[in-house]
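A quick aside before the break. I want you to see a complete sequence-to-structure record at least once, exactly as it would be stored in a machine-readable document. Don't worry about memorizing anything.
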Amino acid sequence: MSKKEDIEKKTEELLEQATSGSDIRIYDVEYVKEGSDYYLRCYIDKDGGVTIDDCEAVSRKMSDTLDKDDFIEDAYILEVSSPGLGRALKKDRHLSYSIGQEVEIKLYKSPPDSKDKEFTGILKSFDDKNITVLVTSGDDKTVEMIFEKKNIAVIRLALDF
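That is the input. The structure line, written in tokens, reads:
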């Protein structure tokens, strides 16, 4: 496991402790370097949406815990937030929460039977290798499309304005 993965895993464990007993669930943790700064980003979610007060409470708990544990060598900036409306679906648990919702998929390359690399549809199911989406074609027919996970550049919740 890389240093980045170790930090994210340990942070997620601490975040689970910080949110236990509440209705908040952990969406994701990222440890990234942007420019000369490191960021430790904790994304939280809950039914009905996350409030600024939720983010503040978790941030305070995490800040104290991270200061006490002190397992990250580099200086970093802690951010706690909602994953947002157009959230990326990176993990199987993200996909599980999103079954039946509209998603946007961007592929690395077009499938053999299409020239498109971007699709929008309803997330139907997934397994270890594939994601199944119900896509409405140009003639208003719904088609079940199966995408291999390894060919997906990004899958995220669709924003419908």
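Two observations worth writing down. The mean pLDDT is 92. The helical segments are 3-19, 52-69, 92-97. We'll return to this after the break.
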